[in-house]
User: Fold this.
Amino acid sequence: MNETASNDSTESREPNGRIPTASQLEIITHPCEPNTLLKVKAGPGSGKTFTLAHRIAHLIKNRDIKPSEVLVLSMSNRAVNNIQKTLAKILDDQTIKEITVNTFHSFSSQLIDEYSQFYYKDYRHKRLMDDISWRNFSNIFSGKVISLDGESVKGSITPASLEKVLSDIKIGKISVSKAASEFQLNEAYLKLLIEYMNKNGFIRYNDLIINALELIQDSLDQLNEVGQVQLIPTLSRYKVVIVDEFQDMYHQLLSIIHSLVKYPTVNNGQQLKHLTIAGDPNQSIYEFLGSKPELMDFIDYDFPSFQICELSINETFRLTNEISKMSSKIAFGTDSNIISSKGQGELPIIRQHYSQYQEYIFIIEEIIRLIFELGGLIKPADCIILTRYNKEIDEISKIMSTIYDLNFEKLTSGNEWIKTKLHCFLDILYILNKNAGFEFSLLSLLLKIDNKIGNRGRISKLFNEYNSWMKNNQSRSLEDYLNEQLIQDSTKNNKILKLKQIYKIDNQSVLNKINSFLKSIRDERNKIFESYNNAIATQDHETIKNSITPTMILESIFNIAEALGILDYINEPDSQGKHKVQDNKQIEKDHKYILKRWLYSFNSSLECSFANYIESNKESTFLDHFLRNCNDECPIGNQDSIKLSTIHTAKGLEYPIVFIVGLSKFGNKSYWESLLTNESNSVSRDLSKSRLFYVASTRAQSVLYLGSTKPIDELSSEVQQTFTNKLPQLLDSSKLMSNLLTQLQRPLPHEAKLKSGLQSYHIFKSRKQNYCTSSKKFNSIECTSSASVWPMSNFTIPVPISTSSKWRLKPCKVMLKLLMKRC
Assistant:
């Protein structure tokens, strides 16, 4: 290594002493001249995040690039957080704050919010419609009774079709008239519906990218008073654009990259920005979004005048040689060209199972064995179970909870509670805060108050009457209209109210609930914002930041939910009434633990958001911050919980011990069978499945398990060479133990703990053998002998019971109070 490279290498050393490898250093120090493209191919565990972070630091320190001139974009919040954490180890806080590191959608959202008002006179703040909100919107506005300015849909269209139609119209793929003709809809209604959405700022997730692209183009088309282009300041200052996870890009995101790189840069003449992209084509698993593994090669055609350089990171710091070799061989039929820094380990394990249920039991009990036999060296959080579908996660978690009483954590993209019945909490908060489009949240909750047959027809009539009232009350809201109607009713006005014509005598109780609900909204809104206004008067930053807390929000939600009368809705299992009466108790019991999980997900979301809010410098209330960021992922940090995840969600993560579920529900064939029986020269290899398997298997740092319906000797020679069917005996394997101790950075438990762990495991096996069968229900008793070695203080051993107690959340107040204590 020459002297310059040596100095760069020393400079890139992290505080913990880690220095870049030769291939990483070449990427870190590569120039960033205008009109150039650097393509980085980086396999699993190659230190891609480390390399990109150090490249950013190098450009700032050595290439005359200011922090504010660097833009870093990625697909996921997880990747963004990883880059920011790595930057925090090598740069000071002020420098990091000036670097833009964002997901594509978050970057687009901020761009729209910050600059749209300067380019569009009628700009309104946006409300991002999640799947449940959109489903509610489509169900209401695809109905035949509802109207806009006297126009109704006059046709039949599903919510999914309506979303596609509106999206295609927005991007210019289809005209309103053609869409109306194709779906036999009223063209006038369709135009008015789009106008209504724009007026209320309703957008879908993909609209963020579309709107950002429109804004970028419009900023180049509009001239100021002296005939000059009014550039967006943020975009015109960037000189370097870095894109992580490039293999996951699809058409719209490529369009954003193209527009950003070609956007004029101040004082840079006609030259374009430098672009660095990094990714691994073998980990391209988002074909359903439009991504393709060939994109890293195709990007060349978008920048024909660019000087292009392609570099690779040739090492992996995650995988053992055995896991690296197996993953490439089974997935693609090729030898791995990645060198493991960990050296030799143990062969991955493949086990034959006769049913999906048997596989689940094996996985759970193998995790228990590993933890016990090593005296607690391995924590539950060191283990992850990977599935293809969320339904499989639900099945495994039910067994963990009801039979083994084990803690688990389901990893999700975003927060689980938003996709459940607790979404109504979000609607309550939108109304409290009077966010853009909050009247739609009010409509959605009114449907839950009035849950009798014909409620959609009544809500449509209510909306129609409100629209008529709005013609003389332009600046007022649906909440104002309802309050006015109910106040007139309370004064015994002789005028027959529109509400009473809609909600007749048999629905009088609905009006009472609406009245109670609106009163609770007013009370809680006054309480929250009185606290905030009092804090503003102090002019103390810390007091203002803490004026609205998660506890206050939880209390308000419960008070409003109680007045709204939706606690029964939250408590009622979705499948209630669809099964035999004798099954209802079990359905209710299952719903108990699911509801508990949702509630804790909501609480975690509040806590994480509040922590981020306190650290931020933005002038807004916590309530406003939470509504803008409620779907941001929370850190994964519970050491007492086994992790469960789909393969797609686990992408980018790594765990010491990984279990890949192999069997299908019917158990007669493994999903991966075509890969396990194919020879390396087979032309029938399913490359989509290959890449999915490659991503799953390369999450493992030390130990990997895979399920199969066939014994190992009936599988391909590749499988027989790269797998074993023998379970790891951890204490007898010096290679595996060495890898685990290094990976976990924990000392081996002393002999007394190891002995106690083995004794506890024998107790577990003995009791299971004597009492536990799949036909019995189970309760749990304390395992006192294992308390010193089991990482979870509440570890329990399953034993049979004869009856199960009936459970009913009272009406979720108990859980909310519990959550409030934790805030």
The chain has four domains: 22-119+209-315, 127-200, 321-411+641-772, 417-488+496-575+582-629.
